[in-house]
Amino acid sequence: MMVTINDVAKEANVSASTVSRVLNNTGTISQPTTNTVIRAVKKLGYEPNVLARNFRKKRTRTILILTPNMTNPFYSNIISGICDLSRDMNYSSFVCNTTDETQQIKKTLDMLYKHKADGAILLASEKGQHWLSEYAEEFPIIQCCEYDPDLDISRVSIDNYHAAVETVRYLIALGHKKIGMISSVNKYLSTENRLKGYKDALREAGLESTDRYVAFAGKDYNYQSGCRAAEKLLTQSDRPTALFCISDVLAIGAVNTAKIMGMCIPEDISIVGFDDVEQTSMFTPKITTVAQPCYSLGQKATELLCRKLEQNESIPLETILPYRMIIRDSTGPRP
Could you tell me the residue range of the domain that residue 41 belongs to? Predict the structure, then answer.
């Protein structure tokens, strides 16, 4: 059986990217770690994939963009940032809708080995996708927005935990004590951190964090799943007086569900979204939300990728861009 870079990483007790940097003499690696990796390489008889490296010398000037849901306006804004800057850098963009299916993601990334693209930007890396290291060892890859913290692959995102904490603190400051949350069944780190921030902010204020006030929408944040989650929360006899939604699309679903149930917003229920997509300010009430710098996230990911492609220079493992809360009409004092 052919020895892979992951086998070497396991033997040396380091990440696959660390093995790659040692073999390519890039980045800053301590001498003891370097020695450990070299011993593991010799012990296992590992031979780097020379074919893939040769492919990289032939440039296609094409960037792969992997998105889980092209219809979600959050992703489309990021894609715009990527495409605009890549065009300025004389690169073409190839957008692939993967629907978060592992086999589809792998099939798309295999285009790198087939010399159909030079690098890739992933918009929805879930936790536990360790197999991504094999691609990142051979080709430039950037994780944008969502990322696996256990992978030594550069990422661009926001501080989702503190954004959630700040949101819940804001609702508490309005007098709300029964605060519900519409989360998601996906395995994104942002989903995990927003839920943790929600619970921690409640505990900080001495408020109860109860599972019956948390409902889970679909993994792709689709509108209908947001409606169903909101209905589950708002039909309780002792219902929440405020909802924190981890996506604007889910928040729009919650707003419309509350209206159908005869509730006034924010007089009867306050609702907060996340992302600041254009639709949040197009209807009544305009939705209070956490604004992610979507276009800038896409541009920063592209900048980092192009630096790797053009100069093969070392880039930061983590880049965190600022978020901001935008207060609109969908939130108000506790009824």
Answer: 1-48
CA neighbor of 148 nearest in space, from 102, 217, 86, 113: 102
Q: Which of 8, 132, 118, 104 is nearest to 53 (CA)?
A: 118
How far is Cα 214 from Cα 180, in angstroms, rounded to an integer?
6
Q: Where are the alpha helices (DSSP H) in 2-139?
A: 5-12, 16-24, 31-44, 50-56, 73-88, 102-113, 132-138
* Higher-confidence position of 154 and 51: 154
User: How many C-alpha atoms does 306 have within 13 Å on its Cβ side?
Assistant: 19
Note the pLDDT of residue 158: 98
Q: Are residues 124 and 136 in the same domain?
A: yes
In-domain check, residue 68: yes
Cβ atoms of residues 282 and 251 within 8 Å: no
300/153 same-domain check: yes
Helix (H) or strand (E) holding 215, with range, is strand 214-217
Number of structural domains the chain divides into: 3
Per-residue model confidence (pLDDT) at position 54: 47
Quick one: 123 and 200 in the same domain? no
pLDDT recorded at residue 25: 62
Q: 207-253: per-residue pLDDT in tens?
A: 989 999 999 999 989 999 999 999 999 999 999 999 999 999 999 99
Between residues 161 and 57, which one has the greater pLDDT?
Answer: 161
Domain boundary among 292, 307, 329: 292
- Residue 158 CB-density burial (10 A; 0-12 exposed, 13-18 middle, 19+ buried): buried
Indicate which CATH number applies to the domain containing 2. Answer: 1.10.260.40
